[in-house]
Amino acid sequence: MMEKSYRPQEDIVTLMVQFEQDVKDSPELPDAATRLLRARLVFEEALEFVRACGCTVAKAGEDGTKTTVIDEISVVAAPELAPDFTEYVDGCIDQLVVTYGALVAAGVKAQSAWDEVQRSNMSKAWPHCSECNAVLVRGTGEELVHPDVAAAHGGNWHTVLKVHKREDGKFIKAPTYSPANLKRVITEQIEEARAIAPRA
Fold first, then answer.
1. Bridge-partner residues for 137, per DSSP?
2. How far apart (Å, rounded) are the C-alpha atoms in residues 85 and 30?
3. Contact 139, 145 (CB under 8 A)
4. How far does CA 200 lie from the centroid of its chain?
5. Could you say which DSSP state residue 182 is in?
6. pLDDT in tens, 104-147
7. Handedness of CA 92, 94, 98, 103 (dihedral sign)
């Protein structure tokens, strides 16, 4: 089987287009609402990583004691601060550097973990029949099947992914959504490393 090429930025374009998010064709600072959303997402993921490391965020008191504040801090818009496009890009690249560094420090190869997370994210979209718009269902395994097998257009249909939203605009995950199984990916990488490690 041919290995899929590792193209994370292209995968994110696919994901963002699928979920009706703005994708720019040339460098341009995003609008204020998009910057706030992206800042919140980066911050949220950073805090999740801090917790995953067995760490927390603390504030030093005047008496030298530390108070945990990880759940009391948030990102808010600051109209008095002018955005800096160069620093925006620098911050994104620096995050990639430290994120890849964290993976390397843990001995994890990014590609298979990335592919699994991308697969899971894309499964949030609802699979529909290209001919009748019926919502597809999961078969006995991972495959998607037409809910009316007898009238499934003689097999002349394909899967079309669509976004479903609540009235407030929040995306609804498809019933066929499947969470990322990173434990499996990590276990496979450990087993692969053991298989090629020289025997002592």
1. 145
2. 9
3. yes
4. 40
5. H
6. 999 999 999 999 999 999 999 999 999 898 898 888 877 888 88
7. positive
Among the listed residues 182, 129, 180, 120, the one whose alpha carbon sits nearest the alpha carbon of residue 153: 129
* Mean pLDDT, rounded, for 78-96: 95
CA 92 to chain centre: 15
C-beta separation of 120 from 16 below 8 A: no
Q: At what angle do helices 182-196 and 110-122 cross, to 10 degrees?
A: 160
Task: Give the Cα separation of 143 and 173 in Å (integer).
Answer: 17
Quick one: how far is CA 93 from the chain centroid?
17
- pLDDT at position 200 is 59
Q: Which residues contact 162 (CB under 8 A, 6 or more apart)?
A: 125, 126, 128
Alpha-carbon distance of 40 to 38, in angstroms, equals 5
CA max distance for the chain: 75
The backbone region for 155, taken as left when phi is positive above 0, alpha when psi lies in -120 to 50, beta otherwise, is: left
| Alpha carbons 170 and 168: distance in angstroms, whole number | 6
How far apart, in whole angstroms, are the C-alpha atoms of residue 106 and residue 108? 6
pTM for the full predicted model: 0.83
Phi, psi of 127 (to 5 degrees): -80, 125
Query: Which two tokens mark 47?
Result: 């805090």
For residues 112 and 189, is the Cβ–Cβ distance under 8 A?
A: yes
